[in-house]
Amino acid sequence: MAGGEPLYRVQAEPLSLDEVIAAVHGPQRGGVVTFSGAVREDSKGHTVTRLEYEAYVPMAQKKLAQIGDEARVKWPGVEVAVVHRVGTLAPGDLAVVIAVAAPHR
Fold first, then answer.
1. CA distance 24 to 65
2. Tens digits of residue pLDDT in 35-82
3. Nearest to 102 by CA among 65, 72, 82, 57
4. Backbone angles phi, psi at 36, to 5 degrees
């Protein structure tokens, strides 16, 4: 939100942690935390070669916005950004990146 509108997006392109941090960072926020979820190469003893993520993008983005907006109401001064990936992802690829910034550390 540092540059304007909150960032809640579903996309096929690789994710950028820097972009998500920039969306919430600003001089009025003293603390920023992030979460990055990546595809693992092992799941319950099975080798993972790829994951296929699908979404109805308009509905998924609306739900991400709802979650982020609820956090902003519950904790005034907090900013939230969430970007989730769709398509074919290989082990190590980021599937979701979230950043939250607050006025205090």
1. 14
2. 999 999 998 999 999 999 999 999 999 999 999 999 999 999 999 999
3. 72
4. -125, 125
Q: What's the rounded Cα separation, in Å, for the pair 67 and 19?
A: 19
pLDDT tens digits, one per residue of 11-28: 999 999 999 999 999 998
User: For residues 23 and 100, is the Cβ–Cβ distance under 8 A?
Assistant: no
- Token pair belonging to 89: 């992802």
Q: Which amino acid is at 19?
A: E
Collect all residues with Cβ–Cβ distance below 8 Å to 87 and sequence separation of at least 6.
Answer: 12, 52, 53
Here the tokens at position 9 are: 């997006």
The answer to whether 14 touches 90, Cβ cutoff 8 Å, is: no
